[in-house]
Specification:
Structural class: alpha/beta
CATH superfamily of the largest domain: NAD(P)-binding Rossmann-like Domain
GO biological process, one term: protein sumoylation
Largest sheet: 8 strands, mixed
Protein name: Ubiquitin-activating enzyme E1-like
CATH topology of the largest domain: Rossmann fold
CATH architecture of the largest domain: 3-Layer(aba) Sandwich
Number of helices: 18
Pathway: Protein modification; protein sumoylation
GO molecular function: ATP binding; metal ion binding; SUMO activating enzyme activity
Shape: globular
CATH class of the largest domain: Alpha Beta
Distance between the termini: 45 Å
Organism: Wickerhamiella sorbophila
Strand order of the largest sheet: 3-2-1-4-5-6-9-10
Radius of gyration: 27 Å
Length: 574
């Protein structure tokens, strides 16, 4: 037994050390926090660790993801982390997956097999997915995040404490489309234009809907109409990506013709600086890669054009093998395009120019990560997990780290579930149905006949059916790819909480479920002081039965959690 495990036996007792040694743990993410977590889990003697991460190792990771070194660049993070971590304790069984945790193969049944889950994720969508799977399978989740000097470890015990989605998180920053496309006033506007509009139209999938606010009003109707015309013209230009004069046509259109079109709208420039169409100097793509490597200085107009031309050539050649290309801050081809195009755009509108390095920070939503904060938060997460395994439920704490002269650490007992939460505040059950089972059969034979619903809406990651939308009624579960997925049933006229059904393939059968009534406001207020046991989980692990957690108290009155989402070991606070 190692000195660490002898210390744990003294602190927690022999039974706790045995539970740690026989536990099966899932760790999602092998970045800065993930590297720290797997090291600490291995050293503490956790018996079986499953590690999931989709990414490969980049040079920029090496200063804080200490399990990786120069020879590991371009290799899968999960596989390298497994191999290096085993050197700390060869007796630990580590299973690594280079995969997306949101893949259907990581099913409810798979999540049910774990005693604990740790989150060290790089995007909010995946974080919410893991949270939902843990709540659905009654699996304890320890969610860790950092943002520079700030950090957080949230303890989530399904059915007893609030989950990740019980608190409202800031909506992603969106920009008015007219600001981005017509009247940019900050360098970030040019960067968003280059990344989410120009690059997406030419090489990639459409920009996320949340990126732009395209609300049409009487004031902007004419402007939006012109912008749609420009967008259609760019779509036509994409059809000629391989033509020899594509670059010249692109520059002429977006930096000259489109700007002249904006200038024709006189009223727009009465109280703001008018743009100046680009005067195109001589440039050559031959110098592009050399200039692109000079990422700490601001390029001239001619240099930006050279980098743009060279990046276009590289991206066009890639499209022969790839149908579309998504922007990635660590993909030099896409970053060079966005950096060059955004600086040319900024020069036209008289905005500040940025180096490629600065553009990478802005376009990739990078906040500098601090390795020490990662280590502290990871340590806190493992401590809380060991307290849970030792049966010290009353001592569990969610912890925040602040940059404060008065108090660096603040902690609170985990709050009770929010009855209004779309994850914690629903009833759940499982259902089997064959591939040819239709949405209409689900509604009529299951929801209405067996569960007593009347007018329902059914949602997955999109609306499937409601009283005013019947396009999918005759479509099958197979056609809609609904096996191994959740669907949510909502009936606004029903007094019961929403129902979430996890569908797998098999003969038609739905597990019996008791659906609680919606709490009224006074009950909801009481609920926050006394965790509810009425939401039926899919499985019956110790978590929901035994964790006798008290209600919400706080060692720091008025304290609120910081919403931290690790972004390749930096954090996007949006």
């Amino acid at each position: 037994m190692s000195s660490t495990q002898r210390g744990l036996r003294t602190l927690l007792g022999e039974n706790a050390v045995k539970r740690i040694r026989t536990s099966k743990v899932l760790l999602v993410g092998a970045g800065g926090i993930g590297c720290e977590l797997i090291k600490e889990l291995v050293v503490a003697g956790f018996g079986e660790i499953h590690l999931v991460d989709l990414d490969t190792i980049d040079l920029s990771n090496l200063n804080r993801q200490f399990l990786f070194s120069q020879q590991h660049i371009k290799k899968p993070k999960a596989l390298v982390a497994r191999d290096v971590a085993k050197e700390f304790n060869p007796n630990v069984n580590i299973v690594a997956y280079q995969d997306n945790i949101m893949d259907a193969k990581f099913s409810v049944k798979w999540f049910e097999s774990f005693d604990l889950v740790f989150n060290a994720l790089d995007n909010a969508q995946a974080r919410q997915h893991v949270n939902k799977m843990c709540v659905a399978t009654n699996t304890p989740l320890f969610d860790c995040g950092t943002a520079g000097f700030l950090g957080q470890c949230q303890v989530i015990i399904p059915g007893k404490t609030e989950c990740y989605d019980c608190r409202e998180h800031p909506a992603p920053k969106s920009f008015a489309v007219c600001t981005i496309r017509s009247t940019p006033s900050l360098p970030i506007h040019s960067i968003v234009w280059a990344k989410s509009f120009l690059f997406s139209l030419l090489f990639g999938p459409p920009a996320a809907e949340s990126q732009f606010d395209e609300t049409e009003t009487d004031d902007n109707r004419e402007e939006l109409e012109k912008l749609r015309k420009e967008q259609n013209e760019l779509g036509d230009l994409r059809e000629n990506l391989t033509s020899p004069d594509f670059m010249n046509k692109l520059v002429h259109k977006i930096f000259m013709e489109d700007i002249k079109r904006l200038l024709s709208m006189d009223a727009m420039w009465e109280n703001r600086r008018a743009p100046v169409p680009l005067e195109v100097p001589e440039y050559s793509s031959k110098d592009g890669q050399t200039l692109a490597s000079q990422d700490q200085r601001v390029w001239t107009t001619a240099e930006s054009l050279s980098v743009l031309a060279d990046s276009v050539e590289r991206l066009v050649s890639r499209l022969e093998a790839e149908k579309e290309i998504s922007f990635d801050k660590d993909d030099e081809d896409t970053l060079d395009f966005v950096a060059a195009a955004s600086n040319l755009r900024s020069s036209i509108f008289g905005l500040g120019l940025k180096s490629k390095f600065a553009v990478k920070e802005i376009a990739g939503n990078i906040i500098p990560a601090i390795a020490t904060t990662n280590a502290i938060v990871s340590g806190l997460g493992v401590i809380e997990a060991m307290k849970y395994l030792a049966g010290l439920d009353a001592d569990l704490r969610s912890v925040n780290i602040w940059r404060s002269a008065d108090r660096v650490f603040t902690s609170e007992k985990p709050a009770a579930p929010n009855p209004e939460c779309l994850v914690s505040g629903v009833a759940r059950t499982t259902m089997t149905a064959p591939a040819d089972f239709t949405i209409n059969q689900l509604i009529e034979d299951i929801l209405k006949l067996k569960l007593g619903y009347s007018e329902v809406s059914i949602l997955s990651d999109r609306l499937l059916a409601d009283p005013d939308y019947d396009d999918n009624l005759e479509k099958t579960l197979q056609e809609l790819s609904l096996h191994d997925k959740f669907v949510t049933v909502i009936d606004d006229d029903d007094e019961r909480v929403n129902l979430e059904i996890y569908i797998t393939e098999g003969p038609v059968n739905i597990e019996q479920v008791e659906i609680p009534l919606r709490p009224n406001q006074s009950e909801a207020d009481s609920e926050l002081l006394d965790p509810a046991d009425s939401i039926p989980p899919i499985s019956s692990k110790r978590t929901a039965q035994d964790a006798g957690l008290p209600g919400t108290t706080s060692s720091a009155p008025g304290q609120t959690f910081v919403d931290l989402t690790e972004q390749d070991d930096a954090i996007d606070l949006t």
